[in-house]
Amino acid sequence: MRLEVRLLGDKLGVAVLGYGFMGTTHLSAWKLIDQCEVKAVMGRTFPKVKAVAEKFGVTAYNRVEDILKRNDIDIVDICTPTYTHAEYAIRSMDAGKHVFVEKPIALSLKEADAIIDASKRNGVKFMVGHVLRFFPEYMKIKELIDQGLIGDPVIARTFRGGPIPEWSPWFLDKEKSGGVAIDLAIHDVDFLLWCFGEEVERVYAKVRKLVHTDISAEDFAIITMKFRGGGIAFVEANWALPKKFPFTMKFELDGTKGMILSDNQSTVPIKLITNEGVESFSPETLPW
Description:
Layout: E1 12-17, H1 21-30, E2 36-42, H2 46-56, E3 59-61, H3 64-68, E4 75-78, H4 85-94, E5 98-102, H5 109-122, E6 126-129, H6 136-146, E7 153-161, H7 174-177, H8 179-196, E8 200-208, E9 220-227, E10 232-238, E11 248-255, E12 258-263, E13 270-274, E14 277-281
């Protein structure tokens, strides 16, 4: 189905599916974009979604089909639990809507391929919200790599972890979230693909329930990736940590001429280390 032709200067209509933490975060972000107008939000519990809709001045729905019938909706932003991504994305694109979906794209390769096929079949745009590419500190890391200051990337080590998320029970259900590897490690996997600029040709990974053995989702993952050019990356994702442990992101990338270190808990978030010396960077934090 072709999208309705819009006049130059018309705002794009946006509908957000999901009203939880990410849904409301996205609603706030869309409000900052002058070229777009949020028109609707959808959630399964109508009294709750209605309260969110009133806060943001949009229309509340609890059925996606009612949103997809609207001709003034150009973009559907999917912030619902991971196990719903494929259904909502494919239905939205089959209705001629462009789609933005929160990471991870889906729970399986089969679902991910079906989403991509729907985008191609309907001639609409599709994007996954891999946010690290837009965080100031990670953008700075990529800039340093692109400037050739560490040479060719050869070895990477990442750590991402904190207390197990308890704000919604679906995170603890492997059939709904995919566990720590799919939900959390995916951040660093995507960023490393961007940094190395190559496909991964071999993966070795282990997931375990180390602390939270009473749930179905794993709380620990260690992943080793071998890139086509010979580079190696080690990715650790960890929900098996105490409740008072601060959410921590660590990144190390060694190159043929130098290395980059990053730690969000450090007073110096980024360090560039070469044979000539050490340089520190403190990019501004995000505005929301």
